[in-house]
Each structure stands twice: as C-alpha cells, then as structure tokens.
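Lecture notes, part 5. Sequence design as translation. It can be helpful to think of inverse folding as translation between two languages: the language of shapes and the language of residues. The source text, in structure tokens, appears below.
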C-alpha cells in the first residue's frame, strides 16, 4: 500500500492507535455513570468511533503518504475502534447495575456461611 521508501514501525502504529483511542476512553468513563445501552449511548459511541477513525487515518495517511487511499486505511481502523465502542456500550457500569436490579439479584454471595471471629 505504501511506497517502498515509506514505512512505519510497530511502535509508531501502536502509538497512533492508542493515542486515537482517547475518545473511546472518555466514552467508557461516561459509561460508569450513564447507561450507554440506549439511544444516547449508541450516538455517543458512533461519534467517538468516527472521531477515532478520522484522526488515526489522517495520521497514517500522512506518515505513509497515501493520500488517495484514505478510505482504504480508514476501514480496518473503523472496525478496530468499533470493537472498543461496542465493549464500552455493553460493559457500562450503569447498564450492568440496571441489569442486576431487573434480575432481582443483590450481588451478595449465596451459600457462604460467615466465619466466626472475623
């Protein structure tokens, strides 16, 4: 895909992928207090995924000098960031708390006897 003279090492690739993951980290932080398994969460996740994909593809295109192939670079990046976005939606703390409450579970271990003297 890149010209023979243009290359990118694994450290730089991991750095770009990790740096551009920051919007999804913020989404996961929001998921601690807000249930992301609703329309608002889906919209926030889509925006974060688009932002991550746009910024990382811009960095890769600049480094590799493949201006005409931006969509080709962006597609696998969007798939990569979508995994983290979906994980943020379905593992949000508020969503799991609602799920536990709906199931009638208390979160206390069942069948464990108290230890005397502790």
């Amino acid at each position: 895909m890149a010209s023979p003279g243009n290359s990118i090492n694994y450290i730089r690739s991991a750095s770009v992928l990790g740096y551009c993951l920051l919007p999804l980290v913020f989404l996961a932080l929001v998921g601690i207090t807000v249930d992301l398994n609703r329309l608002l969460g889906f919209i926030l996740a889509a925006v974060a995924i688009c932002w991550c994909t746009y910024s990382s593809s811009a960095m890769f295109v600049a480094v590799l000098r493949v201006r005409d192939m931006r969509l080709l670079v962006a597609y696998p990046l969007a798939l990569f960031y979508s995994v983290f976005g979906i994980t943020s939606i379905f593992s949000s703390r508020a969503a799991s708390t609602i799920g536990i409450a709906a199931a009638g579970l208390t979160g206390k271990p069942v069948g464990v006897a108290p230890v005397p003297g502790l």
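The translated text above is only one of many valid answers, since several sequences can fold into similar shapes. The chain is about 70% helix and 0% strand.
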